Amino acid sequence: MRNVVLYLAMSLDGYLADKNGGVDWLGGDGSDPAAAGSYPAFYETIDTVVMGWNTYHQIITELSPGINPYQGKKCYVFTHRELENTPEFSFVNKPAAAFLAELKQQPGKDIWICGGANLVQQLIRADQVDRYCISVIPTLLGGGIPVFPQDCEERPLKLVRTECYNGITDLVYVRR
Question: Which of 15, 44, 46, 88 has the maximal Cβ count within 10 Å?
């Protein structure tokens, strides 16, 4: 069965984005700027990308305009908007946890939850995350959009891997 993987970066104080939703602070400390990090190897393990509307909009308008950074992957965008699917993105207007439970039963590689906070928090609350891959960025934001919901039940996890590069620490946890 496929795994649902939360792979994202957060500030040392637990934020996914700054107070304005910006991610300009993502990056290491400059000690090894050529380090590839864990992303290339991770990307090979997935064939499906899921995200919320805000993340999708930020990607297509700001971070990667005119270029689909997930070429060759099936991409689902969760939204309440009624939108026509495109060859690159399918828009989903149904409960995320139920949709992910169905996706997990289909054949394929792992499923990546790439953002945003609302979707991430819904899936954590619903206990739909099988593996947490968190890249801790050496920055304190002092506020912003938190990664983890404040009203979640306890989730015991087991640390299975760490990796450090360019001042970034990757933490990989699975359910205990």
Answer: 15
10 pLDDT above the threshold of 90: yes
Please give the structure tokens belonging to residue 87.
């060859």
pLDDT digits (tens, 9 = 90+) for 47-65: 999 999 999 999 999 989 9
Bridge partners (DSSP) of residue 167 are none
Please tell me the predicted confidence (pLDDT) of residue 110. Answer: 98
What confidence tens digit (pLDDT) does each residue in 137-146 have?
A: 999 999 999 9
* Alpha-carbon span 66 to 147, nearest angstrom: 28
Q: What is the 3-state secondary structure (H, E, C) of the chain?
A: CCCEEEEEEEECCCEEECCCCCCCCCCCCCCCCCCCCCHHHHHCCEEEEEEEHHHHHHHHHHHCCCCCCCCCCEEEEECCCCCCCCCCEEEECCCHHHHHHHHHHCCCCEEEEEECHHHHHHHHHCCCCCEEEEEEECCCCCCCEECCCCCCCCCCEEEEEEEEECCEEEEEEEEC
